[in-house]
Structure formats: structure tokens, C-alpha cells
Amino acid sequence: MEQRPILLVEDDAALRDTLAYNLRQEGYETLTAADGVTGLELARARPVALVILDVMLPRLDGLETLRQLRGRPETARVPVLMLTARVEESDIVAGLELGADDYVTKPFSWNEVRARIRALLRRGAQQAEGAGAAEPAAKSGPLLVNDLLIDEERREVRKGERVIELPARLFELLTYLARHRGIVLTRGRLLEHVWGYEYAGDTRTVDVHVRWLREKIEDDPANPQLIQTVRGVGYRFKG
Q1: Start-end ranges of CATH 3.40.50.2300 in the chain?
Q2: Are 74 and 44 in contact (CB under 8 A)?
Q3: What is the pTM of this model?
Q4: Which among 13, 68, 163, 166 would be 20 to 30 A from 97, CA to CA?
Q5: How confident is the model at residue 201 (pLDDT cuts 50, 70, 90)?
Q6: Alpha-helix residue ranges (DSSP H) falling in the chain
Q7: Which CATH number is associated with domain 143-237?
Q8: What pLDDT was estimated at residue 131?
């Protein structure tokens, strides 16, 4: 099977050239665009394996570009890694809500970006293989924690009678926490088992997702009862 290219959409020419060079050195065919409109045109013209997408773009910003990628069948499931100079958590969550698979904040190291790329490509390959595979084995059954029901088979979460809609990564994080209830889980372990890449010194991704998950499932996110912080270590799911 022909390897699909990686699409890099970044308006900073120096950063774009540096990332493209590093990608090609790793053996990835790379397409580049300097604005959202061109990025969409490239993504629609040829199937891509991954999109690396800056948030602040001319002509069409990264969030709107992402929205349009997710709105088209041919690009709806392509992994997207967001690049952002914004440090406001609300901006990061906005991208995740629209369907971004992961993000890195500028400035970043190439090793950090490479780890995210490898994890997203690996996950994308597994999903593609699973689409044509036999029916997977049944899960071990729904999890019930207080009034929170987690059904892995249906990928559904209920709190009492209310259905809670969770993006895929949040659902995987919640499931992993709940299946290891009572155990203190380090941020590095969560990165490895939920995101699929080794701990490289950056834990902000875990913290942002935990806060986002608390907003979804806790009665009082400011005083969480289910997902507890273990200072200096990580998190523990209590139930």
C-alpha cells in the first residue's frame, strides 16, 4: 500500500521549512501549505495520513480549517495535530472539541513533535486495520461508579439518566482511569497508555484533558470527587 503523505499547514516560513525538513529526514513524504485554504485544497486533492495544523493562519484560521476537515467524509477521520502559540486553555479545548487529536504549544522541540506524530500515525493505522477486521472481542462489561455508567461496547457514558457526549480521547482517558480506580496513575503512564507515546517531560496535555473531563463528569469540577489530583505524581480515580 502506498504510504500517504503528511500535510503540514503553517504560515511561518522558517518553522514550516524546518518541520518539513525534519519530516523528510524521518522518511515521510510531506506536503506543505502556508494558509488554511491551500491546506484544505491539498487535503481534498490527495489522501493524507496526518495533518499538522497551525491555529493562527491567514485566509482561513486553523480552527475553521479543522471544522471543514472534519465536515467532509474523505478527511473526517484523518488524525490532526494542532500547533498553537496560544496558551489559553479555552483555545486548546476549542480545537479538541472540534476534533483535533492532539496539540503542541510553541515553542516545542522536534522530539516532542516526532513522538506525537508517531503515536497518531500508529493509532491511525490501527483504526484502518480494525475497519476491515473481524468483530473485536467483547469488552469485559460496563463500569458503574456511583451514578456514572461507562459502556465501552457502545462507547457511551451516562450520569444517572443523562448521556454525556465525550470525544474519543476523553472517553479513553475516562475508561483507563475507571478501570484502574483507586490506583495512583502518573502522568507519564497516562501518556503512554492513553496517548500512545513515551513521557518526554511534557505533562500539560494530561492536565488539560483531565480538567476538561472533570467539566464533563463532575458535579462540581472545582471540587472534584471522582478524579482526584495526587500532588506531584498524577491522578487517582475514586469510586
Answers
A1: 6-131
A2: yes
A3: 0.80
A4: 13
A5: low
A6: 13-25, 36-45, 62-70, 89-97, 110-131, 168-179, 187-190, 204-217
A7: 1.10.10.10
A8: 45
Residue 36 CB-density burial (10 A; 0-12 exposed, 13-18 middle, 19+ buried)? buried
Least confident of 1-15, 61-75, 112-126: 112-126
Q: What is the DSSP string of 64-97?
A: HHHHHHHTSTTTTTS-EEEEE----HHHHHHHHH
Which neighbouring-strand residues pair with 62? Answer: none
What pLDDT does 1 receive? Answer: 46
Architecture of domain 6-131: 3-Layer(aba) Sandwich (3.40)
% of residues, the chain, pLDDT over 70: 90
Amino acid at 42: L
CA nearest neighbour of 65 among 8, 126, 127: 8
Helix (H) or strand (E) holding 103: strand 102-105
